[in-house]
Design brief:
With 126 residues, this protein is mainly alpha-helical. It has a single domain, classed as 434 Repressor (Amino-terminal Domain). 40% of the residues lie in helices and 8% in strands. It has helices at 28-31, 37-57, 61-68, 72-79, 88-97, and strands at residues 2-6, 18-22. The protein has a two-stranded antiparallel ribbon. Helix 2 packs parallel to helix 5 and helix 3 (61-68) packs across helix 4. The protein starts with a strand and ends in a 29-residue tail after the last helix. The mean pLDDT is 84.
Length: 126
């Protein structure tokens, strides 16, 4: 649903601009018209989990890649959002290799809304 909001004055200009703000669906890949947006969102959540493990354990890309069983350049591409060529199964295996449990829960859709059922991922830090 698009709304028009008034932008406040900034310190460099005396003019006030109007802009249209549209509420997203919760999946940026769907909002941008990507094919298979649920898969893109799921892969991105898994990559976020990999990144968080690296930060928490202070792993370099080289060390994390060795543990995950891939080369450093592929891990670098993955961390920059280039996850084409990485299946969901492969990303799950990388998370497991990095010492992470991955739990998948299947349940009925909770909200009685027009939106379709969805896939969500909760990435937690230990």
């Amino acid at each position: 649903m698009a709304k028009t909001v008034e932008r406040t004055k900034d310190i460099y200009s005396e003019t006030v601009e109007e802009m249209t703000v549209e509420e997203g669906s919760g999946n940026v890949f769907a909002d941008l018209g990507f094919p298979n947006p649920e898969e893109h969102q799921l892969k991105s959540a898994f990559v976020l989990g990999i990144h968080q493990v690296m930060r928490r354990r202070k792993l370099t890309q080289t060390a994390a890649a060795a543990i995950a069983g891939i080369n450093q350049s592929d891990l670098s591409k993955l961390l920059r959002g280039h996850h084409r060529g990485f299946s969901i199964d492969r990303l799950l295996g990388m998370l497991n290799a990095l010492g992470q449990d991955v739990e998948i829960t299947i349940r009925p859709k909770t909200a009685k809304t027009a939106r379709p059922a969805r896939v969500t991922v909760d990435v937690r830090q230990a």
